[in-house]
Amino acid sequence: MTQPARSAQLCAALDLAARGIPVLPLREGKGPMGNCRACRENACGGRPNMKTPGPCACAAPCHAWAAATTDPHVLTSAAWAPAWRQAAAVAYHPGGTALTVVDLDNAAAVAWARHTLPETRTVATTRGEHWIYQGAMTSRNGVRPGVDIKSAMSYARWLGPGVGSMALLPDVVRALVVKEPAPARPAPGAAAAALPSGGGVCPHRSPAYLERGIAMAEQRITDATSAIHHTAYRTFLAVLSAHGRCGCLTDDHVDRLFAAAQAKGESLRHCETAWTNARTKLGM
Q1: What residues does each domain of the chain span?
Q2: pLDDT tens sequence across 193-228
Q3: Using an 8 Å Cβ cutoff, are 89 and 26 in contact?
Q4: Which residue in 33, 221, 232, 258 is deepest, having the highest Cβ count within 10 Å?
């Protein structure tokens, strides 16, 4: 009895698996296969709900990224056959092979990446590009408009090997998933002061010390070539840590810092949020 012909998707998956890339089938619409009856609605306590990545224990391709495998016996098993018959594409688990995909969903996101991120291997997508780096990290969608991070506990559609040399995962990409502390909610009826009140004894003794610190902070923001919001926040944090409690800072100093950040593309609202978060971090 002859074996049924393998689909193009299964053949592509087996080729990738042979190269050590964990793969899974995608249905029409680029979504994963639905969980089997035993795993439906995660009744089994599916692996994606756990903190550590790992394969799904189900015989069928359940739980999206957790189904990804390099085992050809699993890929060609009877339990997976219905999924391959429905498959419209192949996906892979980037984190499972120590990779990170920066998914750029539109032309504006691609332009931002070209201006901000180190060059690496790129793969054309329907609306944008995938930028692929060596190294795994936390996955998160919507890290900025049109940009998703796909690595650990996530999957990306396989669209070909791409072009260019693959670079090591840079800190600027890792920083995209770092959340700043939420601003503190002021007590009812209390107004949050924008700056510490003046009049205290300045421990710095010299106005030149403050001026030099503000000038250095402006330059740090101006010189930043990537992760501008994160740079502004860390700079605000440093300024407040050094000068925020003695009453030295004035509205003019803050305006200078905000102007430097806005010149790099930050909005006034983002500047105000970063400033508030820095004050909250310092307990001010």
Answers
A1: 8-91, 95-175, 207-281
A2: 444 444 444 555 566 777 888 888 888 888 887 778
A3: yes
A4: 232
